[in-house]
Structure formats: C-alpha cells, structure tokens
Amino acid sequence: MVKELDEKNDALPDHVGWRLWQASRAWQAEFAAAMRAAGHVWFSEARAGLLGHIPRNGTRQSALIERAATSKQAVQQLLDGLEAEGVLERLPDPRDGRGKLVRYTRKGLDALRDGDRIKLQIERGYIDRIGEQRFAALMDALRSLDAGQADASGEAPGSK
Amino acid sequence: MVKELDEKNDALPDHVGWRLWQASRAWQAEFAAAMRAAGHVWFSEARAGLLGHIPRNGTRQSALIERAATSKQAVQQLLDGLEAEGVLERLPDPRDGRGKLVRYTRKGLDALRDGDRIKLQIERGYIDRIGEQRFAALMDALRSLDAGQADASGEAPGSK
DNA sequence: TCCATATGGTCAAGATACTTGACGATATTC
DNA sequence: GAATATCGTCAAGTATCTTGACCATATGGA
C-alpha cells in the first residue's frame, strides 16, 4: 500500500457533529458486538434504540411512539420483530380498548441485565482511555445539551 | 393526554452510549434539515457520512473504502447515488488501470460550502446552550476518545 | 516472460429499517 | 347520537447495507 504524496490527509472533519457521530457509532458497534457475543443474536442498533425508550415496567405503545422520534409504523415494525423474537409482548390496555401495553418478557429482562453489565464495561474502558475528569466533563456536557433542547427540535414524521 | 400515575418516568437511559446517540441524532437531524432547506434535497445522513470521508481534493475510491467503516459495495452504492445526483464524479485513475478517482463537482463543492456555514451555525447554538467551557470540554473529550482507539476497533465487513 | 495471487471495482440478490397512504376500531367532544 | 380524534394495523415503496460471485488489472516471483 503506497502512500501517495498528493493525497496527504487533507483535513477530515473535526466539528461537533462529526465527532458525536463517530463516537456514537463506535460505542454502538462495541455494544452490539458484546451483546451478540453474550448470546443476544436478535440485537440490532435500531432495536436497541427503541428498547431504550421502553422502561423496565413497560409502557403503552402510543407513549412509546411519542418518545421515539420516528413514525408509528416504524415503531410498530420494530415491535413486531421484537415480539417475534420473544423479547417483548403486547397486551391489550385494560383502560383503553384501542391501546396496547408493551412489556418485557423474561428474555427481554435478561437482555437488559446483560446490557447494563456491558455498558459498565465500556464505560470503564472509556475512563481508562481519557481519564475520569474528561469523562465526567463529557457526560456533563451531553446532559446539558439534552436538557437545553428538550422543547424545540423537530416533529416526528409520518404522523399524518 | 392524561398523565398516568403508574407510568411515571421510570429511568430512561443515562449512560454514555445513549447520550452520544441522542446527541448525534439531534445534530444530524438539525444539519440535514438545514441542508435540505438550503436546496440540497439530495442530502441524507448516509451520504453525509460518506462525504465526510472524501477530502475536498478528492480521493481514490479504494482509499475511501478503507476509511469508511463499511463494505466496498455499500460505498459503491452511495457513490452511485451521489454521482447520479451530480454531486461527485468518478474518473479513471491514471496511475492504476483498475482504480477510480472520486472528486466533487461544482454542485458538490457548493454543498460543502453551505455545509460549513450550517455547521458553524449549529455550533454557535450549542455554545449558547451549554456555554463555551462545556463545549470546549466536550470537544476535548470527544477528540481524546477518538485518538485513544484509532488502533483497536473492528474490521470492516464484507471485505472478503 | 509467464503464472499465481492480490487488489480495485462491479453486478445481483436479499435483509433491515424506515416512509407514506389508507383504513378499521375505539374514545372523546359537543 | 354525530363529528372528530386517537390507537393500532395493513400494504407498498425507498434507502441503506450485506453477502456472494465475478471480471480486469497489478504485482511478485519462478
């Protein structure tokens, strides 16, 4: 592999968005690999994104749709898949004949447990890499960022 | 919309991975919306991810494949699309009969220019939200994280 | 020089994730 | 009750990415 001279590393991006994207991708790849290695072969990033919005005690499907920033149909399809995998189950909502409740199965709760363990492992790795202080500053900044936008931002698509 | 009592906010995730993912998604949504509003309707996140690996003076397709963490076929398909949109063009590599060079068209360079402007706008918004210091700490942590892993990490798939 | 092997790129087919549009069933509001 | 809104589903299409197979050109060594 010859290093061409006229292709010297002419500035790859170094702005917040790029850095966030790269960091997020790296984290997800590491996490997904560990989850699959732990036997949760059904795991995918899209599914993880949805599960992140489902608290341990379950939720109503409609509430889930509000939280996730996608269309209700996308949420539904992910739920279909997770239900077929036996990670979740859907029950009729006793308080609303139209609604459904989503909750974890035993298998789903096991996955959450493994996920928590893996998260801690990855976090330890990060602290080793950049130090406790930088890591704390990172979390602080990310939390502030989140808090600062909660209101504005965009509409979920497909909600016609 | 009635607030059910037994559904009170039972801990949504608050770990690095989740925060990074949310922050990354928010940034990308904001950026993509602004790009499309600026007339670059061909813009998508996947395409942006690829363009981020193409320096302004172009690159060889094979070098691009090394940088992007996906299969050569995925890269090719994205390039096909971007070429069809007139954002990029591919030329035969004069130094390697097999190779191709990828470079921006006028349209592509215009988009890069608008992109730079939008990035700065978003960055200013972030600084307004969380303050200069937190923002600097965020960038510092993200850069350290990136530097600290450059070596390890995973193989690109599909490279059989 | 010629052959084996590696590399750069393409074609094709399938899986996943997501989007839009249309539609029933139940709630809510007046 | 009737009009309207909400909840969920079905169906079809698009974008992205994956794997596998395949040529064409380079490269390295006998």
Q: Oligomeric state of the chains?
A: homodimer
The low-confidence runs of chain A, each spanning 5 or more residues with pLDDT under 50, are 1-9, 151-160
Portion in beta strands of chain A? 5-15%
Query: Distance between termini of chain A?
Result: 53 Å
Name the chain pair whose interface involves the most residues: A-B, 60 and 61 residues
Supply the helix-strand structural class of chain A: mainly alpha
- In the residues of chain A, how many domains can be counted? 1
Strand order of the largest sheet of chain A: 1-3-2
Mean of residue pLDDT of chain A? 87
Query: What integer value in Å does the Rg of chain A equal?
Result: 19 Å
CATH class of chain A: Mainly Alpha
Biggest beta-sheet profile of chain A:
3 strands, antiparallel
Q: What's the order of the H and E elements of chain A?
A: HHEHHEEHH
CATH superfamily of chain A: Winged helix-like DNA-binding domain superfamily/Winged helix DNA-binding domain
| Range of helix content of chain A | 55-70%
**What is the number of helices of chain A?**
6
CATH architecture grouping of chain A: Orthogonal Bundle
* CATH topology term of chain A: Arc Repressor Mutant, subunit A
Overall geometry of chain A comes to: globular
Give a verbal description of the structure:
2 copies of one chain form a homodimer. Chain A is mainly α and 160 residues long. Helices cover 56% and strands 8% of the residues of chain A. The longest helix of chain A has 25 residues, at 106-130. Chain A is globular and about 55 Å long. Chains A and B meet through helix 1, strand 1, helix 5 and helix 6 of A and helix 1, strand 1, helix 5 and helix 6 of B. Chain A binds a DNA duplex (30 and 30 nucleotides) through residues 44, 46, 60-62, 65, 70-74, 76-78, 81, 93, 96-100, 157-158, 160.
